[in-house]
Amino acid sequence: MFGNLSDRLVETFKNLRSKGKLSASDIDATLREIRRALLEADVALEVVKNFIEAVRVRALGDEVNKALNPAQQVVQIVNEELVQILGGQQRKLAFSKKPPTVIMLAGLQGSGKTTLAGKLAKWLKDQGQTPILVAADLQRPNAVNQLQVVGERAGVEVFAPEPGNGKGDPVKVSKDAIKHAEKKQFSVVIVDTAGRLGIDEELMEQARDIRKATDPDEVLFVIDSMIGQDAVNVAKAFEDGVGITGVVLTKLDGDARGGAALSVSSVTGKPIIFASTGEGLDAFEPFYPDRMASRILDMGDILTLIEQAQKQFDEVEAAKLAEKLAKDAFTLEDFLDQMQQLKKMGSMKDLISKLPGAGQMKSQLENFDEKEIDRTEAIIRSMTPMERRQPKVLNGSRRLRIANGSGTTVTEVNSLVNRFEQAAKMMKTMAKGGMPQMPGGMPGMPNIGGGYAGGGKSKKNDKKKKGSKSGNPAKRAAENTGQPYGNSGSGSSFGL
Amino acid sequence: MGFLFWKKKDKLEAAETSEPEITEVEAPVEKPKRTLFGKPKPKPEPTPEPVVIEPVEIVEEVVVPEPVLVVEEVVAEPEPESTPEPEPVLEVVELPKRSFAMGIKSLFTRIKFDPENLDELEDVLIQADFGVIAAELIVAEVKNRAKKQGAESEQELKSILEELIAEQLERDDKDLNLSSGQLPYVVLVVGVNGVGKTTTIGKLSKYLAEAGSRVVIAAADTFRAAAVEQIATWSERSGATLVRPKTEGQDPASVAFEGTEKALAENADVLIIDTAGRLQNKVDLMNELDKIRRVVEKNCVIAEVLLVIDATTGQNGMTQAKAFAEVAGVTGVVLTKLDGTAKGGIVYSIQRELGIPVKLVGVGEGIADFAFFDAREFARGLVS
Fold first, then answer.
1. Do A149 and B225 touch (CB under 8 A)?
2. Which residue, B186, B190, B187, is CA-closest to B286?
3. Beta-carbon separation of A257 and B312 below 8 A
4. Degrees, nearest 5: CA angle B226-B232-B238
5. Residue ranges of E strands in A89-197
6. How far apart are CA A46 and CA A259, in angstroms?
7. Residue B294 pLDDT
8. pTM of the model
């Protein structure tokens, strides 16, 4: 239908190059595109309107006009504003000083509360807590059974004194659950409540009663990321009706753009704490506002790309490479390896076209010669092992020999060696956690701006270096062993 | 118009025709549950006058008028031997019509709708999840017609809008395809997670059972925790036969296949297959759906593939519909949870762009809380 927002904005700004400056009408056109993109991502209209105004004010300011690429600058502003509304940074779950900590889950029918309850329990258990699940959804047929099964899978006790299916009082169950937890010294109580509509006064009253009875430390509002414009009404109804402290976005492993995230944070002012990304018990992660912003804006299909990369890159190889990078021992051999890994991911053109902003490079992409990689490979293969390990020894006569051996010219050999040195430098910076200035070309692939090989690797390496920061021991352990956290088959919302 | 349904004739009824149906009718006197339905239209004569939406109190009346009337051609004569129906063993049952317009909240609760703020109509439609493009088109057309007709008052504009939505959504293939005479009618129910597939099946099964048909349900959601128990409860409530997976995590296609065998063995009228919720971008799960289809088709003809869509769904509903239509060959949409504040505007685009008719509507958690979709009623509910 439409390209992504970046592409559309570039289109809007096409005629602009000669003018070099943005007029108010140019900005209007841009903002219309942004409005449409946000609406297509299901951000609520009233939120979009306020948002667009905020962006307009900044876009009319100097920062855009002075920018080299106004279109990108506008996208940048939009992105920043989005991240800000989405909560800027992550918020951690609040624990009570005096256990048990009580977490109540509330939301519409089918938003994923029961599944989430299990994930949350497992996550807490992995962190050394002793959670207990409370079956306070006594309405939906066999919700109690479902929670019991989920609890069993998570290895967590379930408090379910009532059979459900319309029998029993959820308020009493919740109250008893707290007593039970205090007596048996559970550290966290997770109360799974029935799904209810915001306009169902009776059930909202019941939810309030559960809240009163349990005095929860967190009331998490669980919402489906596929929800449309109604997200604002629902969020308001739950905020006014029950009072919430945080939000959990579910089913983010789908392909919905998830504008609801923006609507809900903006309307309630409450942070999104977790993202739920699949049906497996581990498909659960803290919420990252910046990634969500990119997703809502549809800034390139980075998601698929990274997922592909994760699957294809050999984890062991990657770990070895990271080590080498850190020790400054990156050689042409590794370079060759890396390129072969990259080739496994499919055609370069295809790969690059998935990157954000690829629209601008379309013509360059057309000209891109897939053979270029083969030639690079040939050059490296014509080197002796020593030359590959220590490119410094490459003198004029060696270079001539290599050029002859690979059917190329000395100039091509030279430029490869130069690109390699640049790349090695760049990767070293990144391995140390810095943000490199992207050099003109991607190693091994001339004429294409901004390299993926480095990019993809850098994320991996970055993650490895910072891995120990994760608050989740399981995740931390996973990172340190170089394994992706969670089952990548179940799909991560953000691809990382 | 009610909904015609050819079912296998009961042997008992074949003997004497006129009376016994009525007893069956009385069976489903519903407990006054939620009050989201308006009055069920008895369908006595084809009065084209719109259903007046009565105030909520009428629940008591709900099933009173002869909802199941046997329309055998020969009702007048005492001998029903020579029924010229599709097949002599079949009989036509007319199911009661139910109204759902009461459940829909009007688009215009917050703004006044008059010529001055015609532009706000676009906003209103967007807020009802019609999507930007559909909203723009509708507004342009309303303006166009208003100009032509010289419409000025709020009432005139509203009726233009209502008429427009209704005629765009009006289709003659919106009835469930349960009249081919090829028994059992297989209904495959698909959709993403949490939209209300199981609940819909429970309601549909109950409804068909009330008309005296034998329903078999295959619990092919072998994935989600306790999904089988959930459908078992519904199945019990509706009096259907349930085919359970023999082992935990059994291949859903094999459960569906056993469903067809059971349905054939029991001479059932309808087989409803419940499937696990799956997000449309999960290729493996979508392939699994294709497999279920193929396996079922070895034994039976699939009459309906119903895609369940939650009314709160935003623009992703379109992606869902496209993906499921491609893989599962969706023949109709069920719009659920219309009793909330969401309007389900996305079905407008789904029906317009993909040509898939909306067939059923869900308006609550009770077993009786559903209705057949009616474009006029939907339009009226939105606009009034």
1. yes
2. B190
3. no
4. 150
5. 101-107, 131-136, 157-159, 188-193
6. 12
7. 95
8. 0.69
Check residue A436 and give its pLDDT.
42
The confidence score (pLDDT) of residue B365 equals 85
Q: Is the peptide bond before B184 cis (omega within 30 degrees of 0)?
A: yes
> Do the beta carbons of residue B313 and residue B345 sit within 8 Å?
no
Instruction: Name the amino acid, one letter, at A299.
Output: M
Select the residue of B128, B225, B314 nearest A226 (Cβ to Cβ). B314
The residue-averaged pLDDT of A294-307 equals: 55
Asked if B213 and B239 count as a contact pair (C-beta separation under 8 A), the reply is no
Optimal mutation site among B102, B105, B133, B193, interface A, most CBs of chain A within 10 A: B193
ipTM: 0.74
d(CA A142, CA A193): 13
Residue A46, min C-alpha distance to chain B (Å): 9
CA atoms within 13 A on the CB side of A114: 30
pLDDT at B45 (0 to 100): 44
Residues ≥6 apart with Cβ < 8 Å to A257: A40, A41, A42, A295, A296, A298, B315, B316
pLDDT at B37 (0 to 100) = 31
Taking CB atoms and an 8 Å limit, are B319 and A256 in contact across chains?
A: yes
Positive/negative CA dihedral, A185, A186, A190, A191: negative
3-state helix, strand, coil in chain A (%, to 5): 55, 10, 35
**Residue pLDDT, tens place only, B266-319:** 999 999 999 999 999 888 899 999 999 999 999 999 999 999 999 999 999 999
Beta-carbon separation of B129 and A230 below 8 A: yes
Cα–Cα distance measured from residue B281 to residue B302, given in angstroms and rounded to the nearest whole number: 24
Among all chains, which residue has been given the structure tokens 């979709």? B373
Q: Flag whether residue B233 sits within 8 Å of chain A, measured between CB atoms.
A: yes
> Residue B353 is encoded by which pair of tokens?
């762009």
Q: Where are the alpha helices (DSSP H) in chain B?
A: 11-15, 20-26, 120-127, 132-149, 154-169, 197-210, 227-238, 252-265, 283-299, 316-328, 346-354, 375-383
